[in-house]
Amino acid sequence: MSEQQSSYRQIFKATSLFGGVQVFNILISIIKTKFVSYLLGPAGYGIMSLFSSAIETITYLTNLGLSSSAVRNISEANDTGDTARIQRVVTVFRRWLWFTGSVGALLTLILSPWLSQWSFGNKDFTLSFALLSVTLLLTALSGGQSTLLQGMRKINFMAKSSVIGSTLGLFISLPLYYFFGIKGIVPTFILSSLLGLVLTYHFSNKLKIKSVEMPLKQSFFEGMNMVKLGILITISGFLSTLSNYLINSFVSSRGGQFDVGLFQAGNTLVYKYVGMVFTAMVADFYPRLSGVNHDNMKVKEVVNHQTEIALLILAPILILLLSTTPLVIHLFYTKEFLPVVVFVQWIVLGTMLRAVAWAMGFIVLAKGDSKLYFYKEVVGTAIILGCNVMGYYFWGLEGLGISFVLGQSLVFIYVYAIVRIKYEFTFNKAFYQIFSIQSVLCIIAFLFAYFLKFPWAYLSGGILFLITGWVSLREMDKRMDIKQLIRSKFLKK
């Protein structure tokens, strides 16, 4: 098997694996939400949500973005094959985790009276927040072990940990809520975070990475490059959250909460539908790219392979969603959400551009160019926000869909210009062929869905789905020899 064929198979394996994990976790989440809402009622569900949002906010502010930034350092060390270097990087990372987790826990403990006052309007929940402070340390340590698995590219361990964690979390929470009701919320949070730590430590210990002796001061200075990049990632994430808040506020001020609900429901639906591709990029593609970040030719190869497979997987999924959007809306929501159909179809049309732009954006992150990454995120966020405001102002909810396509097109051009000038990145001929064919098919599917009525929209969409599915299978077979891969799987069994 050639090196290129192995690369394509690795990408396909990661995407399909995390796609399956995501579907499983969504099903577990639906079951849990149904039972919890029944056992706790609206008031209990509200209390749980307020606890969760407060803890998540403090975690976000105190973890310094290490879970994202450290992947680069660990992957880079892993790619060298130097055991001593891997041990040193992991030791530094773990010490920083203890520091950030302890700061988060201590801050929550100190602020517990005020957190209760800000969240609930009284100090009745001070003890609850004080007890929940331990979850910040447990979550920081657990997240660190997941980052270690990601950096070492142990995707099977990551998938197993996620599936087992979701399943056991369900069986832990439901009995507590059944027997103790609202009083079971805090114990559930603590036991769930402890479970996450036990699971991630179980799988990370399989790596057998020993800690090395070094002074604390030296650990502090050696970890500063992780922290600097992590802080900028955190700030960038905050800007994205702020942008989402601003556009929600703008939509609410002009169209009311109904339009805000439709806007968020449409975004959530599309992300759930195609999220496996983006999840795989974070879990597998980012550490692989980080491992070869010093070699621009290798970077070019890895990004081209990733984007090719991503487009081949995405195109049939997107065309199917374009053709059946009303049915999918009925499945996930109610008929009151049907006005979101056209908005969703516009978002689907722009998702291929988003996937490619996102993949290119990882180049800057993998290179560790923190300042450039920050500027890229700021400008990209400003472009999206500006397009959304303009789109909704002139064309309402459908305008938000149009602005998504426009915004992703501008971000695509902007990010490509950055990586082309800074790192000499270019796409290969195969990418342009796939992108052109699948984009044309998606545009045709969009036009059919937009202008045709039932049953012609479904019929034409079904034909296009078969065509793009055949194109994707043919192109993937060229890269991975799917027939041989299937034969080898059956022979193993």
Strand and helix layout:
Blueprint: H1 3-62, H2 66-80, H3 83-120, H4 126-151, H5 155-180, H6 185-205, H7 216-222, H8 224-255, H9 257-291, H10 296-332, H11 341-367, H12 370-423, H13 429-451, H14 456-480, H15 482-492
Helix pairs in contact: 1-3, 1-4, 1-5, 1-9, 1-10, 2-3, 2-4, 2-8, 2-9, 3-4, 3-7, 4-6, 5-6, 8-9, 8-12, 9-10, 9-11, 10-11, 10-13, 10-14, 11-12, 11-13, 13-14, 14-15
Can you give a write-up of this model?
- 42% of the residues are buried.
- It contains 15 helices and no strands.
- The model has no long low-confidence stretch (mean pLDDT 86).
- It has 493 residues and is mainly alpha-helical.
- It starts with a helix and ends with a helix.
- It is 89% helix and 0% strand.
- The longest helix is centred in the first third of the chain and has 60 residues, at 3-62.
- The protein folds into two domains: 9-222, no CATH class; 225-493, no CATH class.
